[in-house]
Amino acid sequence: MKQFKFKCLLFFSLTFFAGLNAFAQHRTIKGKVISKDGGEELVGVNVIVKDLYRGSITDIKGNYTVKIPNDPNVTLVFTFIGMKTQEVLVGDKTTIDIVLLPENNVLGEALVVGYGSVKSRESLVGSVVQVKSAELLKYSNALSVDQMLEGQVAGVYLESEDGNPTTPVKVRIRGNNSLPDLGTNITASSEPLYILDGVPLIDALNPNIDQVSGATADEQIKINPMALVNPEDIESVSILKDASAAAIYGANAANGVIIITTKKGVKGKTRVSLSHKTLISNPINKVQYLNTDQFVELSTEFYRNSGYNDEDIADLVGRTDVYTDWGELSLQNAMSHHTNVSLSGGSDKTTYRLSFGYKDNETTSKGNDSEAITSRLSLNTELVKGVRLSYNGGISTFKSDKYAGFATYAFKPNIPVYDDEGNYTKMDSYANPLADLEQNINQSEKFYTNNSLKLDVNITKNFKSSSLFGIDYTNTKQFTFYSKENGKGADDGGYLKEKRSVDNNWVSYSQFEYKGAYKKHNLGATAGIQLKHDESNSTTADENNLITEKILLLGQSKEDADSEVKSSESENAMRSYYGRLNYDFGKKYFMSINYRADASSYFGGDQQVENFASIGGAWIISKENFWVENELISFLKLKTSYGKLGNAKVGTYSAKGLYSYNTSSNYNGKLVATPYSAPNEALGWQTSYKLNLGLTAKLLGRFNLGIEYYNNKTKDGILSLHVPPETGWNSISVNTADFTNYGVEFTLDANNIKLGEIKWKPNFNIGFNRNRLDRLTSYAERLTTGQFSGAGLRVGESTSLVYGYKYAGVNPDNGNPIWYMQDGTVTEDYSTLKSDTNERVVIGKSNPDFNGGFSNSFSYKGFNFNFMIAYEYGAEKFISYAARDMEKVKTLYLYNKSVNLMDRWQEPGDITDIPRLAQDIPYVFNSSRYLYDQSNVSLRSISLNYNLSRELCKSIKLANASIGISISNVYTWYKEGTQADRNGMAEYRYTFPQSRTFAFQLKLGI
After folding, report:
1. Looking at the keywords, is Membrane present (predicted)?
2. d(Cα 99, Cα 80) in Å, to the nearest integer?
3. Which of 85-94, 151-160, 666-675 has the lowest mean pLDDT?
């Protein structure tokens, strides 16, 4: 009883006492672990004393030694990647040799499902997919783990914002779970909830992050939290897709949850792991622009068709004796280096893992390099018997230079880099690209730390308590300098801007867990409370007309300079109560119930509290007495779940009216507050009701089949709508729509299929997704946006439809562009077409019909060969820079154009889809002419690795060693194909230059 009271007191007060020891007699068990396949000695097998958090690991000969309590009921657990876990009752044995079997059956694999809970795949009710770090690193050289998920999981779709390896990627789990932006830049986020070792991470792509300060787009610093976490430190990534799996996270779980678990230490002597990777990247799919001869030809034709005389044309066209390929000057073959070192080990009571990483990443676009330094510590210790304290934390620094190289590739080719005096050629208010690269600065620095401290107390055999406190902190500095020698700086007499921002988030939870069994009844229960607080602030200052450019510090501008300082602060808090109940009968029938109540400061009035819940069940049919065992289907399980989840990822003050203080707003010389955003106390939660039906089967003793159907109905979708100007506001956030995402996912994988001496591990997945707008509560049954956006909403139609003007081609008689009207006729009169928004019709959709991946791993003796294919079909995208490069010929006096313009109409009878070149040709961006089909099949990676034999490693005093080579972004086949000497989807897909990367890697274990 005293020990029980002590543990309770320890839990509630969170006071930790070290140095106490539990005395008990021990004895030693030793043995050897080998593989059934060929009797291979296995190094690195975990040998754990069940329920005591202690153990050992096998050496290079497969031998182990472990101390256990002097109790015949002690059980040893043997685990190894790719092998079945075995449990052995020790009894009175002193030597235990083990033969591990290949893990052809992954049903016993442990999956992380949130709040410290781990479930076997066999007992899983919800839709959870777990990807081990070995699988992620095998198929990708990406800088962050989110980018590595491409093609790995059914129903997960990735899209890069610009193709830059350091910027965030959009991750969509089972479709877009929020409404499209209709031009106000405010909508609920569609990004999943990221959890790192129990701590929620910042939503890097939340469109409302900087809405308070009113910062311009170039001032918003989007942080990819995953780029600050070293992939080498990650043990596994779990993706929670349905209500049963995610409901315990309540608010913000409607978009899915991604749980990242980092590597931990294992008992034994200190082991050192070293790895180094050198990467060489080459530019590919380069956009092709006009050379000087072509540029002069087209410019002359354009000005002549526009009515200019020959003298003016010669002045406007410029030089004919110079050719500068700005794209080639801005590109490079890049070399990067990634180095990692880790130390791990431990004793009976304490285990640890310490790691360091360094990445010097050079891109194929000059001036867009980055440097990352990461460190991480995992420490787990037993304070007293049954009481464990664990710490998991990391510190990272990240520096990046950003140079808008892509925009400069389109500068006129007949302008020389240098003038006659050897100085950089001036380009009016635009910077000479090379001068910009050399003289200007656009740099960001980030300091990031994520830490969690957790206390676990085994109160009794069946009861356990856990408490966690975690911090996610980012400090960012962005510095911009434009020299007075070029571009914007020349207009301003030099320009400086500095922005500093801090995001400081903390979370704390305490929970009780119960696990008990009676005959065939197994019950597990969890109940807890969580507190979460997020705080952000930023300050931006700029000034021009600098006194000197030798000291780049704010506060040294001339008296007549313009300067501005603006700042913002925001904070929000959430209190949550949650619970989970798991029950099974005979490991045959399973039930899971989850509940969570969230109270959030995001919303006002009586909308602050919302309840979320789910229920799910599973039935293993193959365990029934009526089931006849057969080789075709050895395991069969049906599962289903239904529940309600939420999305509170909106602007911090979307429901509240805000005021802004600005030096331009004063009364009698005094600073005054002016209205900034419209209040809406009725704004409430965006909620999703998720249904999931699934089937899991094992075929022919080796193939694992998974089929799932989902139907996610979202209620009260949040959108910011334009309002009449007489209201005094531009827009207001409202709960305005209901919509549905539904689809089917299919997965088929196997482990170690034997093809002679070759072992093959394939994995195929595909996900189909559709969506539909069910109800629109605001004003009308159709909402569309302005001229330059393709988004729109129409009841009964998909929410991912693209609206615009349907291009009909070119009139062969006069070279004018023509468009289809709704009645099927064609017109050349764009002004009439534009005046009626009803003429904007559906011309495509931004959501793919299906996407997926196919990965393969082959092993032969010490060799491993791997390749990954990713694919998508049906998504279409407006390419704005294609319109700029191709159609906006009015800017020929400033920019080069796409080589595609060589196919323009020139004389009556020409059949082409590119109009004649003249000023009276309208610039129509949102036309189907610039809607490109993204359907593609991509060979994402190929790799070959060789593991040195144990005998060789032993002779050079190593535990293990491997060398490898890989190629990333090998080749992509697009549905529309490619055309020699012309640009298409392959060239226009991203704004950032694409590259193919060759990597050479060395790994050593000591």
Report:
1. yes
2. 12
3. 666-675
- In this structure, are residues 765 and 745 in contact, taking their beta carbons and an 8 Å threshold? yes
∠ CA(299), CA(302), CA(303), 5° rounding? 90
80 and 151 co-located in one domain: no
In terms of Cα–Cα distance, which of 559, 521, 587, 562 is closest to 107? 587
CA atoms within 13 A on the CB side of 317: 24
H or E element: which one contains 833? helix 830-835
Both tokens of residue 109? Answer: 């694999």
DSSP H helical segments within 689-813, as ranges? none
Residue 48 lies in a domain: yes
Question: For residue 70, what are the domain limits?
Answer: 2-103
Q: Strand 98-100 vs strand 26-35: parallel, antiparallel, or unpaired?
A: parallel
- Residue-level length of the chain: 1006
Residue 6 within any structural domain of the chain: yes
Among 55, 84, 103, identify where a domain stops.
103
81 and 136 inside one domain: no
CATH code of the domain containing 43: 2.60.40.1120
How large is the angle between the packed helices 310-317 and 292-305, nearest 10 degrees? Answer: 140
| Rounded Cα–Cα distance for residues 60 and 64 (Å) | 10
One domain for residues 154 and 75: no
pLDDT at 2: 45
DSSP 614-651: EEEEEEEGGGSTTPPP-SSEEEEEEEEEEEEEEE--S-
3-state secondary structure of 347: coil
921: left (phi over 0), alpha (psi -120 to 50) or beta: beta
Q: For residue 336, which amino acid is it?
A: S
End-to-end Cα separation, the chain, in angstroms: 47
Residues 559 and 622 in one domain: yes
Give residue-wise pLDDT tens across range 387-396.
Answer: 999 999 999 9
- How far from chain centre, in Å, is Cα 287? 27
Rounded Cα distance, 256 and 128, in Å = 10
CB 274 within 8 A of CB 1003: yes
For every residue of 392-444, DSSP letters joined together read EEEEEEEEEE---HHHHTTB-TTS-SB-TTSSBPPBTTBPPHHHHHHH-EEEE
pLDDT in tens, 458-480: 999 899 999 999 999 999 999 99
d(CA 297, CA 40): 72
Regarding beta strands 257-262 and 936-947, do their DSSP bridges make them parallel or antiparallel, or are they unpaired? unpaired
Q: Which residues pair with 568 in a beta bridge?
A: 538
* Mean pLDDT of the 780-800 span: 72
Residue 90 and residue 30 in one domain: yes
396-406 in b/e form (b: 16+ CB < 10 A) is: bbbebbbbbbb
Question: Dihedral of CA 731/733/734/736: which sign?
Answer: positive
Q: Which of 70, 66, 71 is nearest to 55 (CA)?
A: 66
Average pLDDT value for the chain = 86
Are 536 and 444 found together in one domain?
A: yes
Are residues 240 and 257 in contact, defined by beta-carbon separation less than 8 angstroms? yes
Cα dist from 6 to 381, 511, 527, 910, whole Å: 18, 18, 21, 91
Calpha distance 812→912 (Å, rounded): 8
Strands 609-620 and 633-647: antiparallel
What pTM value is reported for the model?
Answer: 0.87
Same-domain pairing of 134 and 99: no
Distance CA 728, CA 724 (A): 8
Residue pair 739/687 in contact (Cβ under 8 Å)? The answer is no
CA 936 – CA 850 distance, rounded (Å): 11
Q: Does any domain span residue 319?
A: no
Instruction: Please give the full DSSP string across 55-89, using - where no structure is assigned.
Output: EEE--TTSEEEEEEES-TT-EEEEE-TTB--EEEE
Q: What is the pLDDT of residues 841-878, one digit of tens each?
A: 889 999 999 999 999 999 998 999 999 999 999 999 88
One-letter identity of residue 168: P
